[in-house]
Amino acid sequence: MRDALSVVADIGGTNTRVALARGPQVLTDTIRRYRNAEHPGIAPVLEDFLSRHDARPEAACVDMAGPVKDGVGTLTNLDWRVDATALQQATGAGVVAVLNDLQAQGHAVAHIAGDALVPVLPGAAAAPDAARLVVNVGTGLNAVPVFRQAGLTLVPAAEAGHLTLQALNDEEMRLLKWMQARHGNTGIEEILSGRGLERLYAWACEDEGAGRPLEAAAIMAAYTAGEARAARVVRIFVRYLARYTSDLALITLPFGGIYLVGGVARHLGPHLLDAGFAEAFADKGRFADFMGQFPVHLVTDDYAGLRGCAGHIAERLPG
User: Given this structure, which CATH class describes domain 160-299?
Assistant: First the structure.
């Protein structure tokens, strides 16, 4: 049964991608994209997709950008309510599941091809069932551990982007005070995200007494062009990202690897090592050598959410 036909969907803020899957394998030639604004909810999207393929899936799994509890979720930036019961009615599937989008990324890591994983730090070889850690840096920030036991994958939900922003030196203290003056008790997501990169640059302009704020794309263009202020901002961003990732690694012990996902992570991926990621990741005092055990990868798979849905729902089916 775990090779049964399922329908999977990855709901983003603007578009939804839907596909058929056979067991944990997404049938990539079936992937279809729908514009969310043209549909009142996920149910008619799935109904249209299944009618086009004349498919009767035994299972269905959807991931969405928003909190999920007891099979029900509401999208953060879209007036859609996703309900497991409604999904069952729309698809006719006997087994259904609703995941948060980062949970889907966690379920995906065991199913991503090697050419969609860019190595950042080598780490050490680990047992297949070792814990993993997924860190998402995009519109927001979050991280989830991935555990394997008795052939099943567990990805507990988290809101780890709201850990308190801290400062370890004079430069960071100036940044922290600037952020607190504008945002109060500041979570680290306020600097480790797309808008966070922009806030860092705006702070750097004030700290240096020159320049004007830029949007994230312009900051990266300035960095590529060699602008000193952009280089400073990227180094600070990467230092905080490495510190955040290594702190969570000491909590979850992801000997199976750390996976960086999200649009901002992808854009910064080619620059992580040049901007000091390895040094900041290992900056744990007497635990510096210990940190070398954790491999770090950058995920570049556009269909990771769909793969995670397929992998999760396949495990839910009888063996």
Answer: alpha beta
